[in-house]
Amino acid sequence: SGLRVEGQADASGSVWFVRDGHGSDRLVTDDPLGRVVERYDYAAYGETVSFVRIDPDTQATTNITAAQAKTVQLFGGDGEYDPSSSFYYHDKRWRQTHRFVSMDDPNAGDPAEPSSLHAYLYTPGNPIGFDDATGCSWIGQLMVTTAMQGGLFAVRMAPGAVMVTKAITVACGVTFVESLIALELMRKGILPADGAQYVATVAQFTGIGYIAGLITTDLLQCVAQFSPTQTQRLPQDKAVDGLKAPRALPTGRPVAQNAAINAEKDADAQRLLAQGALDVRVDQRQSAMVNNQVVQKGINRPDEQGIFMSRPPIIFEYDTNARALLEHRVRILANDPKATVVLKYFDKNGNYTIIP
After folding, report:
1. What does each C-alpha distance from 124 to 11, 116, 258, 271 come to in angstroms?
2. Torsion 204-205-211-215 (CA) sign
């Protein structure tokens, strides 16, 4: 169901499908005149509200069912409608309105995104802002409209990525639209430092030329902190790999001179223990459980890490500097690619954003 049908032809002629910003088929038009011959309206999870067939000559309307629609790619564009069951099929699972009828991979999900741990939930309870073409991995979809040239810029975002744009707006003092554009160009791997080239690139990938003029080289330099350079594993980390880790120290020790960070660190320690961590390590060398023994993975000292018997570590980093957080993650994952790393970026008011 990941491939979209733009149009089709049968004995009655050719038609084209018109989708909304969420990907739902809304109109069917005839070819070559482009007259509307069917219109589809949905409730939040794709339930039928009004399906209408329209005579293009007389404009007379006839109510139809979803089973009579000219396409099975109806709501959201991420599944195919099955008329016999009224379920949607999402490549690996069937969905009935807000929930799947079978369980997701029990090992799937990210502790940093609690809603992703729900084994039956379709999207994180937000079918308008998210979709799930595979039945196993929902993604976000934001449509940002701007009055400038009547342009429309669409960004498809992984779970939690909207939090990155929030961090960018706080750290760089820019608008949400600007941060979305910058984030999309980072995702494409094209974040040029030259302002003129940036304008041209935005125009190329969004069709919006004028809005690019709002984005300055200063913004690029600021946003660059959210796209750290990848590094190889450091020799000093390799040198201690597999050595027995020292015992865990008390978790009440501070990791920063920031009260909000220390309070969140303490709260995360309790959450780790509640999830079954054997011990919680604060500002100690990166470690993991290997063959029933806690061993070192590097000489770096993550802010907080939970060590588990039968799953990889969960590691937290806290900072008021987003670039430092991302650089820490690069090193942590170089030492242990299986680790779950949660980055918490704190603003000057003590509020934090999780950077995915």
Report:
1. 42, 7, 32, 21
2. negative
Nearest to 79 by CA among 115, 125, 131, 130: 131
Q: How far is CA 62 from CA 44, 53, 65, 252, in A?
A: 23, 5, 10, 69
Residues forming a β-bridge with 164: none
- Pick the more confident residue, 208 or 170: 170
Indicate the pTM of the whole model: 0.44
User: Alpha-carbon distance 317 to 271, whole Å?
Assistant: 15
Sign of the torsion formed by the C-alpha atoms of 178, 182, 185 and 187 = negative
Looking from the CA of 31 toward its CB, the CA atoms found within 13 Å total 12
Provide the pairing of β-strand 314-319 with 340-346.
parallel
Let me know: does 94 contact 88? Beta carbons within 8 Å: yes
- Rounded Cα distance between 268 and 272, Å, is 6
Reduced to 3 states (helix: H, G, I; strand: E, B; else coil), residue 114 is: helix
Edge to edge, the sheet with strand 352-355 lists: 279-282, 304-307, 314-319, 340-346, 352-355
Question: Residue 277's pLDDT band (boundaries 50, 70, 90)?
Answer: very high
CA distance linking residue 97 with residue 47, whole number of Å: 7
Listed in sequence order, the residues at least 6 apart from 35 whose beta carbon sits closer than 8 Å to its beta carbon are 29, 56
**pLDDT above 70 as % of the chain:** 67
Euclidean distance between the first and final Cα of the chain, in Å?
Answer: 27
pLDDT in tens, 34-61: 889 999 998 888 888 899 999 988 999 9
> What are the residues whose beta carbons fall under 8 Å from the beta carbon of 28, sequence distance 6 or more?
15, 16, 17, 18, 36, 37, 38, 39, 70, 71
Whether 294 has a pLDDT exceeding 90, the answer reads yes
Contact 128, 137 (CB under 8 A): no
Nearest to residue 335, comparing CAs of 290, 291, 298, 289? 298
